[in-house]
């Protein structure tokens, strides 16, 4: 079969690095470009011919099904399987295997719920079929691979090793990393041990390689971003709005801003850089917002300046306050005349008085 009709989407992570965004919301459900991030992944899989998707859920599992239902609104058949004890990436794949209907040699697409990518899914499936691989991996090239797992390949694209998070120059033998999307031959999934935690990166793939299985790598150098940190998440959302990252699920035309229905933006506010203003949000006079995400019901008071930041649902940003690279949790209150920058995070529901945090101009 040269088309993957089925997919497993791994959405069980706690999103610890994304807090406070993930206190009330699992990472795949945090809005990016106006819809839950997961919507973009589901829509791209559908566009590539996938019809049946099993979501492997764990953290805040109960919020997925009420939103997506059976998937019919996206042209998909979606099923949900919840892990009650975290099973790791390999364990999660094995845990949902009983829901698959594919034959032993059919391709099954598997991808991580926190990667924004322009991957040509059909090309990965075609490469898998042509090479006759047991597992095919999407690989991408990065300048600094130390935070990732390296995947060197031979001249034919066949994987030769898996090197987890190398640190010394001698260990960095390639700039190719595991980009978090795979095609498994259906029968290979059944070889993963059931009922215990398994890491596909540290156990399954190296084990298959050692046993002589054929693992194929396809380097695809389109857009790729790991949305594991708040700064990356904000950038990914802006790139979707700007059209740099492709998605059929962006609710509107690509451009400098995406203002959703029921949001209110003052005529002289300046909104740019792929900023999203979500439903019911209110942007006051003279506010300047660049490359940011303003979630539902948030209020940005007059003359506030927000850059590369995320303002949580129902939060309020006071007049003349400046945010740069900041994350403001749901329902937080930041008073007037504050300056918050460089990765600062304000917890959900926190209250910061007027002029409580300032940076001197000579810093």
Automatic annotation (TrEMBL):
Nucleotidyl transferase domain boundaries: 7-239
Domain named Mannose-1-phosphate guanyltransferase C-terminal: residues: 255-357
Transmembrane segments: none
Signal sequence, renumbered to the chain: none
Gene3D superfamilies: Hexapeptide repeat proteins, Spore Coat Polysaccharide Biosynthesis Protein SpsA, Chain A
InterPro entries reported for this sequence: GMPPB_C, Mannose-1P_guanyltransferase, NTP_transferase_dom, Nucleotide-diphossugar_trans
Protein name (Swiss-Prot/TrEMBL): Sugar phosphate nucleotidyltransferase
């Amino acid at each position: 079969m040269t088309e993957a009709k089925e997919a497993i989407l791994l959405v069980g992570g706690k999103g610890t690095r994304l807090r406070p965004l993930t206190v009330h919301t699992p990472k795949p459900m945090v809005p990016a470009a106006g819809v839950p991030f997961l919507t973009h992944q589901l829509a791209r899989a559908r566009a590539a011919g996938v019809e049946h998707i099993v979501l492997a859920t764990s953290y805040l599992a109960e919020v997925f099904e009420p939103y997506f239902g059976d998937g019919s609104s996206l042209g998909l058949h979606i099923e949900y399987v919840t892990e009650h004890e975290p099973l790791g990436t390999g364990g999660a794949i094995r845990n949902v295997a009983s829901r698959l209907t594919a034959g032993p040699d059919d391709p099954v697409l598997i991808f991580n719920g926190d990667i924004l990518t322009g991957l040509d899914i059909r090309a990965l499936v075609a490469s898998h079929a042509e090479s006759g691989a047991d597992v095919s991996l999407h690989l991408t090239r990065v300048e600094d691979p130390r935070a990732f797992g390296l995947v060197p390949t031979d001249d034919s694209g066949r994987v030769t090793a898996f090197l987890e998070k190398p640190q010394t120059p001698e260990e960095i033998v390639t700039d190719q990393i595991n980009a978090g999307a795979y095609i498994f031959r259906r029968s290979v999934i059944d070889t993963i041990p059931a009922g215990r935690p398994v890491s596909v990166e540290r156990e399954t793939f190296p084990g298959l390689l050692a046993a002589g299985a054929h693992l194929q790598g396809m380097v695809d150098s389109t857009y790729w971003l790991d949305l594991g940190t708040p700064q990356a998440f904000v950038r990914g959302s802006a790139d979707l709005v700007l059209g740099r990252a492709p998605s059929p699920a962006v609710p509107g035309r690509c451009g400098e801003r995406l203002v959703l229905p029921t949001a209110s933006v003052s005529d002289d506010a300046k909104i740019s850089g792929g900023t999203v203003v979500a439903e019911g949000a209110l942007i006051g006079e003279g506010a300047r917002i660049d490359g940011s995400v303003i979630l539902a019901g948030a209020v940005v008071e007059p003359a506030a300046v927000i850059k590369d930041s995320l303002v949580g649902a129902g939060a309020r940003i006071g007049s003349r306050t400046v945010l740069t690279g900041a994350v403001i949790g749901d329902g937080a209150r930041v008073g007037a005349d504050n300056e918050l920058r460089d990765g600062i995070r304000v917890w959900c529901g926190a209250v910061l008085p007027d002029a409580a945090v300032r940076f001197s101009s000579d810093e």
